[in-house]
Amino acid sequence: MSQGSSNAPRQETNIMNTQGGVDSSLYQICLNLRRRLARVPRFEDFLIEMDEEEAEAEGATDPVTSMWNCLRRGFPLLTIYNALQPDNPLIFDSSRVAERSIGKAATFKFLQACLTELKIPANECFLITDLYGGDTTGFVKVTKVVNTVLDILAQRGLLLAHDPRNEQYDEKRPPGSQLTYTQQVVSEIVTTERTYVKHLQDLQTVKNELIAGGNVPGDAIHDIFLNLNALLDFQRRFLIRIEQQNSLPESQQNWGQLFIQYKDSFRVYEPFIANHNRCNETVTREWDKIRITPHSKEVDDLFQSQAQFHGFCVKPFQRLSKYPMLLNSLRKNCQLDAEREADLVEGEAAASALMVRANEAVGREQRNGAVVELQQRVEDWKNHNISHFGELLMYGNFTVVKGEGARPQEREYIIYLFERILLCCKEVNPNKQRARVLRNERATPNPHGNKPRLQLKGRIFMQNVTDVVSFVKT
Q1: Mind listing the pLDDT tens digit for each residue in 65-99?
Q2: Residue 126 to residue 146: CA distance in whole angstroms
Q3: Are 166 and 35 in contact (CB under 8 A)?
Q4: Are 276 and 313 in contact (CB under 8 A)?
Q5: In the beta sheet, which residues pair with residue 409?
């Protein structure tokens, strides 16, 4: 054993337990970028403009929006590049370009220089639409390129001296101070949210690498990840609000109001969570193609274990279930004024409603899948049109009592209750079905594999139902 080694057990690093840091938060990325830009020669005027705009907004903006608007002007990007003191500095004559296109034209010159002079690989550069679009994933790419140029400036010793005044944005706590219970809960909200956003970014990395690999069909990739991009964009924006709330003095923080404001925006979760079963089925079916796809080291764990892949895909549902508990801890254990306590009650109810809607979305998706399967499995629809039945309300295996008197008969049926009709179905005996297929070589193949065909054994139109009696068998 080499000198310095230890027999002490070490926790194995795994993507499932890796926590997200400040680099997972676009809010913190922009705060850090602002600190770095303060050391770029001749950039001070742009920072002053940002400060003035933030003052005019009176708290209605945030560091991400301020940085985004600043870089969209184009000229700040030219200033960053020209700080490298290149032989051919970027000169831009705005009088020759329409006013609405000035920012984009200046950005184009910056990107050209990054590609041709700094030799930044094309796949690591951002597109103009990344800066001028509205998706946070695109803006993350912008910040990475700007930070790359700043790294080159630092390596060449071209940055200004460090100014301690720029540390005003740092997250600081007096050394050795004890956290109150409220601070502990708030810290958990912030740190777990950063970790969650990191995990969504990891999923997006997997999606992009599967697309680039070309092994897995595009339809299958869609069925696995569905609206992941929109979900990640929303969650980054929600993390910005969480970070913004956390930056306020404790007496001004209102965590309940945050969930009240965003309760409708959380609907972006419903299709993703409702897609859970289809996602699992697709991953299982395509796993052999998924695991051999070339991928980056940071997401290697997800390509090694199908169980971990499945586990990562349920993280959105797990995160939704965590919000009510965190808000409940704040409400029950923290000293709050009446207004903020009332907001926490309403916010907790809004967070709990997210779970209810998510479960309803899962149920709807399952019922929709059951309708598709029913349509394909029934042998003879007896001139009925399933599109006329209305929405499927519930389905399953039930015992049906037939006959009256002393010896009623009980039989098992698969029942489908639609808005306008109730169907009683029974699976065709596999032996009889096989014999029938042998007699008819042109029999339509069953798209559901080994599942037997269904026969319609009874139907009741809801317009003919006059009474419903509930009873329990003893």
Answers
A1: 999 999 999 999 999 999 999 999 999 888 888 99
A2: 10
A3: yes
A4: yes
A5: 402
Straight-line distance from the first to the last Cα atom of the chain, in angstroms, rounded to the nearest whole number: 71
Q: Residue 296 — left, alpha, or beta (φ > 0 → left; ψ -120 to 50 → alpha)?
A: beta
Tokens, residue 131:
């800066």
Q: Is 300 buried (19+), middle (13-18) or exposed (0-12) by CB count in 10 A?
A: exposed
Cα–Cα distance measured from residue 463 to residue 215, given in angstroms and rounded to the nearest whole number:
52
How many CA atoms are closer than 13 Å to the CA of 419, on its beta-carbon side? Answer: 6
The answer to whether the beta carbons of residues 224 and 283 sit under 8 Å apart is yes
Whether the model clears a pTM of 0.90, i.e. scores above it, the answer is no
pLDDT in tens, 321-362: 999 999 999 998 888 889 999 999 999 999 999 889 888 988
How far is residue 235's CA from residue 262's CA, in Å, rounded to a whole number? Answer: 11
Task: Tell me how far apart the alpha carbons of residues 343 and 345 are, in angstroms, rounded to a whole number.
Answer: 5
Kind and range of the H or E run holding 425: strand 421-427
Inter-residue contact 374 to 427 (CB < 8 Å) = no
Q: In the numeric block, which tokens belong to residue 95? A: 């009088």
What sign does the CA torsion over 193, 198, 201, 206 have?
negative
Backbone angles phi, psi at 3, to 5 degrees: -65, 140
How is residue 120 written in tokens?
């930044």
Task: Output helix, strand, coil percentages for the chain, rounded to the nearest 5.
Answer: 60, 10, 30
